[in-house]
């Protein structure tokens, strides 16, 4: 059979378009999940003092979540050290823009990553810092505000995507705080973090969101009493994966 240049070019174009459509279909089939958190989502490696680095992607709990769920899901990691639910932190002025206030940045993050099927929120640990003087109830209201932002942002900017579902995680309670400086910064925080799950569950239920107590999956076992070991990251990632599959089944 004689093949002209024009027919060959047409065939190649059709193959390219078909491949693109198949790839697009595959992308569209994946469930997209935004994970919104603080340093324990970012992957802060606990140290006795001084600066630190970040766990590799496959060690961090969002990475474990991705590996456990597999290719049918896409995990988008939005972790930021020192992030709160909805209160500005004046101690880190070099973090400009929305800063560390989780409520100030969330709508932009949602619109950036649309379409989304689910938003997983694990915040509240930094809210218990002494300087904020927040009760567990007030912190839970901050989480409620984040749930509402997800609903109000809906599809983002100029798009018709539906608002994603929300899964609220109560972070594991603080451990034994070390060194003394950190203990002072989080004074009274251990008790507050132990009280958070009950308040978070009530707020999530009232707002129509799902809830999971990460403290039932692991403890805050880092040497500083604030951050997580690789084992704790693995426990959260695998535990959250089971909850996600139930929500998005």
From TrEMBL:
Residues 35-235 form the SGNH hydrolase-type esterase domain. Keywords: Hydrolase, Signal. Gene3D superfamilies: SGNH hydrolase (3.40.50.1110). GO terms for molecular function: hydrolase activity, acting on ester bonds. The keyword Magnesium does not apply. It holds the Pfam family Lipase_GDSL_2. Residues 1-25 form the signal peptide. This is SGNH/GDSL hydrolase family protein. It comes from Microvirga aerilata.
């Amino acid at each position: 059979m004689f093949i002209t240049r024009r027919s060959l070019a047409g065939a190649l174009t059709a193959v390219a378009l078909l491949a693109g459509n198949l790839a697009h279909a595959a992308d569209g089939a994946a469930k997209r999940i935004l994970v919104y958190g603080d340093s324990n989502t970012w992957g802060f490696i606990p140290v006795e003092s001084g600066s630190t680095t970040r766990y590799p992607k496959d060690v961090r709990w969002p990475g474990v979540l991705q590996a456990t769920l597999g290719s049918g899901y896409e995990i988008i990691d939005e972790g930021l050290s020192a992030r709160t639910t909805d209160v500005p932190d004046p101690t880190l002025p070099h973090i400009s823009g929305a800063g560390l206030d989780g409520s100030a940045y969330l709508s932009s993050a949602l619109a950036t990553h649309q379409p989304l099927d689910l938003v997983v929120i694990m915040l509240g640990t930094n809210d218990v810092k002494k300087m904020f003087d927040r009760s567990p109830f007030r912190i839970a209201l901050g989480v409620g505000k984040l749930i509402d932002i997800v609903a109000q942002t809906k599809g983002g900017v100029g798009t018709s995507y539906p608002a994603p579902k929300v899964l609220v995680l109560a972070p594991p309670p603080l451990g034994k705080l070390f060194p003394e400086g950190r203990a002072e910064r989080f004074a009274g925080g251990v008790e507050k973090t132990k009280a958070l799950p009950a308040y978070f569950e009530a707020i999530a239920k009232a707002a129509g969101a799902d809830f999971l107590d990460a403290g039932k999956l692991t403890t805050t076992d880092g040497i500083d009493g604030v951050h997580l070991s690789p084992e704790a990251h693995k426990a959260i990632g695998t535990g959250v994966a089971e909850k996600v599959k139930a929500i998005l089944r």
